[in-house]
């Protein structure tokens, strides 16, 4: 539409010029490519290509609207299994909104579209101050660049999830990023100014924050008091709502020896020690609940801001594996977002567990970041070969769907050579020279599978097995935390082809347990009254298996509901060898477990088809797997749950949709093997290569294999 020359002015080292394109003519909406060449110079490169958009309202309006159901993100009502990547730009990476090049974006989005990628995650992360340093004074160049980015993605049919903050929200001069009114005013302004530009645009939705912690700015990745006046006021209000105004009763409840009963807990209160020495661990339990509530309320507040400014666009919160520990937990802030998210980075032994622990039954869970952190040997060589890394990434992608996830977003499309952190500077599918790593294969294959499978997918049937997460134990600072759940999930998936739904003991209700036939409560130590009540009610229709000792509620009290369960006693420390009738006769407890782990002294109550079943020995913490495996088999049989048993430790899961069954197998062994999976009376023999995975979609009723990832032929028999 225009060709011309532009004079360059300035010193020899740096010259600049400005072109005015189009003159009096109005440019039509759409993307314009700009080729710039400097003539008669000796250096290279002496030409570049960039571009710009004239806002295309029709393009922005005609996208598929994203909504959510129990298990899936949907576009215009249809299931959209997310196969995505994280993308900023190949040329300047995280500076993409400050040095934009829509031509580079267009080339990369075109390649993503060719590969079947339907979703990108991007954002500001920690660069928010460059977008809006002072409240309300946003950089229009940043907003225009984001406008161009979204339009470029939309032109290739790719949805954009935009992340605002990272690790902690900006305080905007305040003292607490989650509670200070000054901080919240600044955050509201930034979110409003960006979201309003995309009001009712279906191509974009929002991620509030990447991997948050409730902690001082210099204590990230922990959960501890910030120590400001806003927190003190919020803590006082929270305590009054939970415990009332009787300070004497609170002193007894917490067993506080000092004068300032209602003070924020000290750091020493938050961690376990063998000697109490003035610590107030019961106060730590309340602080954990308080900090979870603070972040959940913050998320809910900003979600409302985004809905008001942007319309009915989805909002999430991108938490990492810390959500399975004491940091803001997906199970506890799920009500404040449209779908939960988890980032699976370091827990490579527990990737399925990561997903199960962060998925609630009512909302989708997106595996929103996963990739390959660099590991090195003694001499700095890569710990894994490129092929080994590709196979691990393949397993990570498969685990997302084995955990009933709505999809997976790989980190990242490009390596970021500007990243000053060695273990992150090599993460990505494409190297700076443009060549692709073998890891790209896994994403391409997954996209091809779901292109065939998605028309046959709907929300899955409820799981018959529910695993209760012992958050009360974890938040009380007790050793072992939620570790018992890892062993249970591993054995269920690998030995029996069963993956449970996980529910926090802080959110247990009779309604959420209504579909369960087997409820597993692994080594909880403490249970609060609402959880005990929900378990008592569930025992009327399900088998409730409790292992290990239950002493009391988190405040040392015996509630009526706890007493009705008939499983509470003081217990005793485990012996190094405990006799058990399961799996060989002995359970071993070493590594000083006898100093923090107790068993019940009550007798085992047996295995009824429904009701409360107490196994007094904490088998999930034993050195041996066999006793727990034998117990779980008996429980599954007693609850009449169909399994896919295997002596080969290969994860298997069958997820039943109305028309088809999604089968996921993941092989963590170094041998090629065949995993047998039972689907509606048919046995399917699924070959799975060493260190790899298989996904298959099987038509219900006929047993026909509708789609499968690459591998040897799948055989079936009745």
What do you see in this structure?
The protein contains 17 helices and 31 strands. Helices cover 27% and strands 21% of the residues. The longest helix is centred in the middle third of the chain and has 30 residues, at 281-310.
Features:
17 helices; alpha/beta; 718 residues; five-stranded parallel β-sheet; globular
Q: Topology, please?
A:
Blueprint: E1 30-37, E2 47-54, H1 57-61, E3 66-68, E4 73-75, E5 78-79, E6 82-86, H2 102-115, E7 119-123, H3 128-131, H4 140-154, E8 159-166, H5 181-197, E9 204-210, H6 229-243, H7 247-254, H8 281-310, E10 315-320, H9 330-333, E11 339-344, H10 351-357, E12 365-370, H11 386-402, E13 407-410, H12 440-453, E14 465-469, H13 471-475, H14 484-496, E15 501-504, E16 518-522, E17 525-526, H15 529-538, E18 543-547, E19 550-552, H16 560-565, E20 572-573, E21 577-579, E22 586-588, E23 598-599, E24 611-615, H17 626-638, E25 650-656, E26 660-667, E27 673-679, E28 682-688, E29 693-699, E30 705-708, E31 715-717
Helix pairs in contact: 2-4, 5-8, 11-12, 14-17
Share in β-strands = 15-25%
The stretches of 5 or more residues where confidence is low (pLDDT under 50) are none
The percent of residues in helical segments reads: 25-40%
> What is the mean pLDDT?
95
In angstroms, what separates the terminal alpha carbons?
67 Å
Give me the count of strands.
31
How are strands sequenced across the largest beta sheet?
A: 6-7-8-9-10-11-12-13
SS-based structural class? alpha/beta
The count of helical stretches stands at: 17
Oligomer: single chain
Radius of gyration: 27 Å
| Biggest sheet details | 8 strands, parallel, barrel
Gross geometry: globular
